[in-house]
Amino acid sequence: MSDAQVEPAVPHRPHRLPEGTDLEREAPAEAPSTTPRVQSPFSPDEEDLVAPLTLVLLRHGVTEMTTSRRMSGSGVPGPALSAAGRVQAAKAADLVYGMGRRTWMQLPHVTRVLASPMVRTQETAGAVGRRVGAHVETEPGIKEVDFGVWEGLTVPEIAERDGDAIHRWRRAEIAAPEGESIAEVGERGYAVVKRLAQEHAAECMAGRDVPRGIALVSHAVAIKSIVGTVLGMPASQWGLIWPSPASTSVLQVRARYDGSIAETHVLAVGVPVE
After folding, report:
1. b/e string for 208-243 if b means 16 or more Cβ within 10 A?
2. pTM of whole model > 0.90?
3. What's one GO-annotated cellular component (predicted)?
4. CA spacing 20 to 30 A to 31: which of 97, 109, 118, 242?
5. Which of 60, 165, 159, 168 is nearest to 117 (CA)?
6. Is 144 part of the annotated catalytic residue set?
7. Nearest by Cα to 270 from 251, 256, 253
8. Measured between alpha carbons, how far apart are the two ends of the chain, in Å?
């Protein structure tokens, strides 16, 4: 889904450290990465960029609310994964572990796992963390939309209560009553992407300029909002993106020396577990 191509591994480039850096306190540089870089032929000049950052957006496995098609947002901590959801989480964890090992050989291994504070994402992220050997970090910025008074309802029940409001919400025209709009979810989700790009660039500029991989275990609306923002789509069209439960969407972020994002490649959207 990307016009990216694989290039030979790029040797480590020395960077000018930020003014005031104490060289004696800097950790020794890591060995150059053997992971080949992925770059679009239309990408900005490599010399202005640090190594790529890969973000694996993973939706949680199914819950009883998922299968009953009820609104399950961030207004309440639960529900937990169902038995089927736990199986999906284990399969998704193996898929993430295999990136750079068995599949997606051009990508770095995932070494960090961030998850929304909801029970279902924490459980899914726990499976991923155990598989890749990483502690799960809680990240509120990627929690699901707050459905407000619609929490726990089905679409027909919402339509009976509030008419076409659910469709206006899906088109990003309004916020859920006492809850959030889709645009608000995209704003806070993309803020996490920007912060991770800045952290990654800072590590690269400190002498560890290597590709890195981070898994973000999140939710359907949050993931589609991040992907829609990256693609420059209006919020009214984000509803056309649909990451199924336990699916992965892969972004490659190209950051400049100062941590700002030059561009982001969308490598995959909604890859399901088998």
Report:
1. bbbbbbbbbbbbbbbbbbbbbbbeebebeebbebeb
2. no
3. cytoplasm
4. 97
5. 60
6. yes
7. 251
8. 19
Express each pLDDT in 148-178 by its tens digit: 999 999 999 999 999 999 999 999 999 999 9
Q: Which of 58, 14, 42 is nearest to 217 (CA)?
A: 58
Q: Which of 12, 46, 123, 144 is catalytic?
A: 144
Q: Could you say which of 60, 200, 219, 265 is catalytic?
A: 60
What are 27's two structure tokens?
């950790």
Tokens 């770095």, residue located: 108
Burial status of residue 48 (CB atoms within 10 A of its CB: 0-12, 13-18, 19 or more): exposed
Confidence of residue 31 (pLDDT cuts 50, 70, 90): very low
Q: How confident is the model at residue 103 (pLDDT cuts 50, 70, 90)?
A: very high
43: left (phi over 0), alpha (psi -120 to 50) or beta: beta
pLDDT digits (tens, 9 = 90+) for 46-95: 678 999 999 999 999 999 999 999 999 999 999 999 999 999 999 999 99
Q: What are the structure tokens assigned to 44, written together? A: 């900005």
Q: Which helix (H) or strand (E) holds 100?
A: none
Where helices occur in 11-146 by DSSP H, the ranges are 64-67, 83-98, 119-132
**3-class DSSP state of 224:** helix
Assess contact for 245 and 67: CB atoms under 8 A.
Answer: no
Number of Cβ within a 10 Å radius of residue 72? 24
Are the C-beta atoms of residues 265 and 248 closer than 8 Å to each other?
no
Which pLDDT belongs to residue 46? 67
Phi/psi-derived region of residue 231, left when phi > 0, alpha when psi is between -120 and 50, beta in every other case: alpha
Tell me, what's the pLDDT at 41? 52
